[in-house]
Structure formats: structure tokens, C-alpha cells
């Protein structure tokens, strides 16, 4: 018990836990591919919480789920460009309807973490 208390108090257990989670997420992310998309029209919102996990099997897009439950992670890198992790490498465009869906997710994700007034 004294060893556990010492490791907990020193932060060693916390660090070990973080490293373990990082390795698991890294292994999952290594299976995904990079998608680089340009908006056909409209603009992507870029905010304080730009990288958001999403699932693509429902409308509206479910978001902010655990990394392992997501189908993609979307990251607008400018008003016309978005990077995402997904099932295949892709360089292409995305329609205005998808831009609007991703913008809605950005707003809802930001609102979820904003300070209550």
C-alpha cells in the first residue's frame, strides 16, 4: 500500500495512465488516412475547439464522442480548407451541405464548452 501511495503522490500513476491512453489512441489513429477537402462553396468556421470527433452514420452529425467511437476527426484549417482523419486518403471537395453540417457541429461543440452566463 505504501508503494501505491508513493506512486500516486508522485504523479507516476497519472503519467503512466496518460502514456497508456496516448499509445492506444496513437495505434487507432495510425489506421486512419488523411483527407484534405476544399469547400465547393461557403466557408468553414474556425474556432477555439476546431478539432471535433464525428460520426457519419446519422443526420445531424453526432459529435464529441470518444476517439474510438468516431468515424472521423474534422479540423478546419482555414475558411475554405478542412483536414480530416477518415477511412481513405483523399484530396477533393465537399459540398455546401457538408460545410454547413460541419459548421453546425463546430457551433454546438463550442457552445457545449462555453461558460454559463
**How many beta-strand elements?**
5
Low-confidence stretches: none
Assembly category: single chain
Q: Characterize the biggest β-sheet.
A: 5 strands, mixed
Radius of gyration: 18 Å
Based on Cα principal axes, name the global outline: elongated
By DSSP (H or I, 4+ residues per run), the number of helices equals 3
Helix content: 25-40%
Q: How many structural domains in the coordinates? A: 2
Please, what is the average pLDDT?
Answer: 88
What percentage of the residues does DSSP assign to strands (E)? 15-25%
Strand order of the main beta sheet, please? 2-3-4-1-5
Strand/helix succession: HHEEEEEH
Distance between the termini: 45 Å
Structural class category: alpha+beta
Q: Quick summary of this structure?
A:
By secondary structure, the chain is an alpha+beta fold. The protein folds into two domains: 1-30; 32-112, no CATH class.
SSE arrangement:
Elements: H1 2-10, H2 12-29, E1 33-39, E2 52-54, E3 72-76, E4 81-86, E5 90-94, H3 96-112
Parallel strand pairs: 1-5
Antiparallel strand pairs: 1-4, 2-3, 3-4
What attributes does this structure have?
117 residues; 5 strands; five-stranded mixed sheet; alpha+beta
Structure characterization notes:
With 117 residues, the chain is an alpha+beta fold. 38% of the residues lie in helices and 22% in strands. The protein is built from 3 helices and 5 strands; from the N terminus they run ααβββββα. A 5-stranded mixed β-sheet has the order 2-3-4-1-5, with helices on one face. 15% of the residues are buried. The model has no long low-confidence stretch (mean pLDDT 88).
Amino acid at each position: 500500500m505504501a508503494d501505491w501511495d508513493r506512486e500516486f503522490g508522485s504523479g507516476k500513476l497519472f503519467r503512466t495512465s496518460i502514456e497508456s491512453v496516448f499509445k492506444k489512441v496513437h495505434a487507432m489513429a495510425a489506421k486512419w488516412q488523411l483527407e484534405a477537402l476544399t469547400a465547393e462553396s461557403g466557408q468553414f468556421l474556425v474556432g477555439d475547439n476546431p478539432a471535433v470527433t464525428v460520426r457519419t452514420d446519422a443526420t445531424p452529425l453526432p459529435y464529441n464522442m470518444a476517439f474510438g467511437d468516431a468515424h472521423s476527426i474534422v479540423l478546419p484549417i482555414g475558411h475554405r480548407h478542412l483536414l480530416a482523419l477518415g477511412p481513405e486518403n483523399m484530396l477533393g471537395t465537399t459540398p455546401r451541405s457538408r460545410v454547413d453540417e460541419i459548421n453546425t457541429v463546430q457551433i454546438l461543440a463550442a457552445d457545449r464548452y462555453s461558460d454559463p452566463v
